[in-house]
Amino acid sequence: MSANNSFPTPFSPTPHPLERRIIFANLTKPDYKPDLITYLAHGGYNELRKALTLKPSEIVAAVKASNLRGRGGAAFPTGVKWGFINPNDGKSHYLVVNGDESEPGTFKDRYILHRDPHQLLEGIAISAYALDVHLAYIYIRCEFPHAARIVSNAIAEARAAGFLGPNILGSSFSLDVFVHQGAGAYICGEETSLLESLEGKRPYPRIKPPYFPAVYGLYMQPTVVNNVETICHIKHILRLGPEEYAKMGTPGDGGTRTLCVSGDVQKPGAYELPAGSVTLRQLLYDICGGPRPGRTFKAVIPGGSSAKVLRIGEKIITKSKNSDGSLSEKQTDILDVIMDASNLAAAGTMIGSGGVIVLDDSRNMLWALNNLNLFYAHESCGQCTPCREGSLWMAKITSRMLSGKGVPSDPRTLLSVANNIAGRTICAFGEACSWPTQSFVEKFPEDFEAAASNPITTLTAA
Amino acid sequence: MAQISNHTETTSQNPNNSQTPSRQADNIPASLLQQINETIARYPVSKRSASLPILHLWQNHFGYIDDSAIEWIAHLLDLQPINIYELVTFYPWFRQSPPAKNIIRVCRTLSCALAGSYEIFDKFCHAIGIDPHLAAHHDGLINSPCGNFSIQFVECLASCGTAPVCLINDDLYEKLTPNDIPKILEKLKTNSEQTPNTP
């Protein structure tokens, strides 16, 4: 129990042999403090000094060469996103750091914000220098009240020491950074919604095109929105060199990636692993210690609750190129799928935010889906009709099925509602709320048919 | 803008009448005003951006946001009251009625539910005298009869690795078991008896 200000963490003091802690290198140390003195004693702000001697375009090129992908959920190549900003267009540019961490199953940014805020600030300073940004905001969800204070204190410390503010480290580069707290809405994690929220409005996502943040972002100026973990990687790209950094991961997914494992495993926690270095089997059995005693795994949600669920035992058909250029098909057990962006996409789901939720054979998938449906019904912003009405409709159906009042058409209705939301909304919330229903119903028909075949006992009485 | 503000001020309750509740906007301490001004300075491009942070400051000070607050903040930021009102009604964190001394937010979403958060929520509710079924389906905080506790079943608090968790006031409580709950409540009761009722 009791946490208060001590923040117990799900980290073991010694990393698992498969782990490679870069972002988590310092914050997992029990005596590490979030203050400037501690950060400087661990080599802090050296990369910022180095960055200020480089040309901004050299830093953007390094980020491109690093193959870093966004760690917030969409896995968009960070260097490409940065490349959309033209430093010579004469406009104001903004950097907004997304610390709204609220995708169920994801809990990595929490530890960075609470325990190593200067790592984030150094990343922000380097990124801002590269993107010709002089004003940056860190959007932190209000459910992290201590984090907002810790990061604000860190900003004041960094400013007093000349790492932020006017003429950073004696250069001509100036940067102001401020914390902006959210107010309890999941939708604010969507980047254009976050910008609306930062502008003091209801966080209704903007339609793309034309409102890509890089074109019409904060205050309609070119803006980069990056996840907290993504920004932390920037200094390590400079420290290790982009080639060395990229080599840790796979060609399409460079560096390390944090996987947050929760649910029915022996050792839940946040694990920083070289991207694409482990299979689902290694993650669940070697790193997380396997299922609880007497249980077997039933299902895995691999990338935050919005990612399509995987059924243990299912086979994935992957195509690979032979040495002579011909294609061959291969059946892979789901447990042997590599946990990176491209392999999970091939398996019909996504790495998303890296939030892995594990369910064992004691769980009913209708119950689990209903839990998620209630989440999405609560969090839909209400801007688009299919999502506003559909998310609630799906939650009503699964709740009714759970209460024993299922009808045989329920699984079909669920799929039909989900299919009519996905692709018909302004933002990706439409997909996020449909994918669980689509995948749960399709992959675990037995759990849904059992509830759907229950007779209606109360309707006749009414 | 100024005209609308004056109009709303004259039609709202007369602060000299002792029978009407006092308007928050008539009781803004200097320290809060200073914080609000500092907040506006953080948004040099558009002061409308300060609306969420000001609502946070306001709610932290007064405990909730009343109609006078909505008008006052709108006037301060050169906005219409609706521009502030729509934020208060959209964002789940803001409330328009007073909470109890301690606010308990139990995480409801999947990882915590797998780890027993429904049981934790029920146990909290029973211990503070609230019907858990009612509370689970209530939108927003629900206050206990004793006035010490407000409770809400909330969505993911982003600490799934230490589930089940709850956020009490500003503090996160992790890896909860039903046995922890009487101890937590006892500690909170003692703390709130030592501090005055003003937030």
Explained architecture:
The complex is a heterodimer of chains A (462) and B (199). Chain A has 462 residues and is an alpha/beta fold. Chain A is 38% helix and 15% strand. Chain A folds into 3 domains: 213 residues, Rossmann fold, CATH 3.40.50; 103 residues, Ubiquitin-like (UB roll) (Roll), CATH 3.10.20.600; 88 residues, de novo design (two linked rop proteins) (Up-down Bundle). Chain A has 17 helices and 11 strands. In chain A, helix 2 packs parallel to helix 6. Chain A is globular, with a radius of gyration of 23 Å. Chain B has a 5-stranded mixed beta sheet with strand order 2-3-1-4-5, covered by helices on one side. Chain B is of the alpha+beta class and 199 residues long. Chain B folds into 2 domains: 75 residues, no CATH class; 93 residues, Glutaredoxin (3-Layer(aba) Sandwich), CATH 3.40.30.10. Helices cover 46% and strands 10% of the residues of chain B. The interface between A and B is large, with 64 and 51 residues.
Task: List its salient traits.
heterodimer; A: 462 residues; alpha/beta; Rossmann fold; Ubiquitin-like (UB roll); de novo design (two linked rop proteins); 3 domains; five-stranded mixed beta sheet; four-stranded parallel beta sheet; 17 helices; globular; disordered N terminus; disordered C terminus; B: 199 residues; alpha+beta; Glutaredoxin; 2 domains; 9 helices; 5 strands; 46% helix
SSE diagram, text form:
The complex is a heterodimer of chains A (462) and B (199).
Chain A: H1 36-41, H2 46-53, H3 56-65, H4 78-83, E1 93-99, H5 109-115, H6 117-131, E2 133-140, H7 145-160, E3 176-181, H8 191-198, E4 223-227, H9 228-240, H10 242-248, E5 256-263, E6 269-274, H11 280-287, E7 297-301, E8 310-311, E9 315-321, E10 327-333, H12 341-346, E11 355-360, H13 365-379, H14 385-402, H15 410-419, H16 429-443, H17 445-452
Parallel strand pairs in A: 1-2, 1-4, 2-3, 5-11
Antiparallel strand pairs in A: 5-6, 7-8, 7-11, 9-10
Helix pairs in contact in A: 2-6, 2-9, 3-6, 5-7, 6-9, 9-10, 13-14, 13-16, 14-15, 14-16, 15-16
Chain B: H1 2-11, H2 30-41, H3 51-62, H4 67-76, H5 81-90, E1 102-107, H6 110-114, H7 117-128, H8 132-136, E2 142-143, E3 149-154, E4 166-168, E5 171-173, H9 180-194
Parallel strand pairs in B: 1-3
Antiparallel strand pairs in B: 1-4, 2-3, 4-5
Helix pairs in contact in B: 1-4, 2-3, 4-5
